[in-house]
What does this fold into?
Amino acid sequence: MARTCPTFVTAAAAWLCLSVSPDLYAQQVEASREALAPVPRIMWFSGTFRPADGSRASLETITVSVYRDKEGGTALWQETQRIAVDAEGRYNALIGSTSADGLPLDLFTAGEPRWIGVRFHRSGEVEGARVHFASVPYALKAADADTLGGKPSSAYLLADPQSQDGSQGVSLPAPLTAGTLGHLGMFIDSTNLGDSVLYQSPSGMIGAGTTAPFDVMHVAFNNSVGSLTGYAVQNLSGSATAYSGMLFYDQTGALGQFQGFSNGTHEYRINNVATNGTINFMTGSTSRFKVANNGFIGIGNANPENELHIGAGGNPILKIDGAVNAAGQGGRIRWTESFAGDYGMEAMFDGASDELIFRHLSNSLVDADNILVVKGFPDGRVGVGVAAPLDVFHVAGDIRVGTGTTGCVKDADGTLIAGVCSSDLRLKKNIVPFPSSLDRVSRLQPVHFYWRSDEYPDRHFGNSESFGLVAQDVEKVLPELVTTDDSGYKAVRYNVLPFHLLQAIKDLKSENDDLKARLTALEAAVAAQAKR
It folds into this structure.
């Protein structure tokens, strides 16, 4: 009955065992017994795992490392394998079993001490205290490595084909291997080795197709048709959860990011799982698209302050190109509610009319009434509640301006048109009363008329009977009320007319008061004459 490893070993002080348990050794070694050298290049290691979070799992992933030093330094050799852990945390591992050749032959030839460290692949776990390698019975075989049957290797050296004394020696066989320094070997036929495309530089960098690697791994090739990319990953599993990709770890060995392709959904996924991790797409060392840890996205902004933050100053532009030329179609921005009903709003640039349309959406997200329409160049008209604005600003409905105590509609020169406007004496200077207006106002002639709409369609006159004043007639009486546009057409400043009407009323009242005084005086004179 084969001996098993001690069960009292901790992760901080593990033992190397000389014999193996039947159930584990049979699985990992028996199948390759014939391929192993007379001295097996695997070692038995046993220990106890006490996880920091207290949870238990029947299978764990570990990385075993061999070091030159008890503390610090770089690992001379590593391997990662899955091991079974019992309910008490005890485990056994065959070091070197993941490789067909086992532990490297040159790992123990320097005559220096070696230390072993074990790290469990769990969040928060670090490598345990290193354990010193001890000698085993097979080392007695290794002690004889410098001799052949107790005799020095020189005793078996073949003589040169022609000795110095001219005697004929034994012919040396031709070498079975040939290669170039630094190149990894490959079988060029069933027995002989030659150069592969892999090269290892003196500093340990690997080149595939190059002897001057730029980095730890460098692949160089020449393919002008784009059929090769230099790196391919394929997961042959058809499982819905199967991925092909890469994993990135930080300096502590903690998983930081996954990047890969789903065989099931065909989704390409970049998943940064590191604490406070972000994803940043850059060109020329400048952030172009940044996904912050809180989910905020910055376009041209490395520190987004909102769910979508575009630009970091300057003149950023968000362009939505619908590339259509049909009514009711075009690029749009849509806002909807997240609960049942899905009422909302959208802004759309209509492909047929070249209008920016703000519209209400029904509960089925069907386009409803236009709320605000902005006509493009050269019209530049705005319509509120109307789909086809006929003037620069066209409102279908009432207009409410101000707060009740303020709210003034002004002309371009600041002259009031309507509303509640500032009129405090303290805000004015060069105050001059209106001259007498009664005579001039009385000469104005209001008229009824129809616009010549068919001859001036671009002015969007109505077809109904209208009323007002004729600018040329007003200009003769009150020229300050008339303006002329760049085309020579005249217009009346109707907003100024009420002030002339007020002055005319004052003039009329003054004349009326004068007449009333004269009438009173006449009446008094008549009464005095009657008493005589």
Notes: Residues 243-310 form one domain. The chain has a mean pLDDT of 83. DSSP finds five helices and 32 strands in the chain.
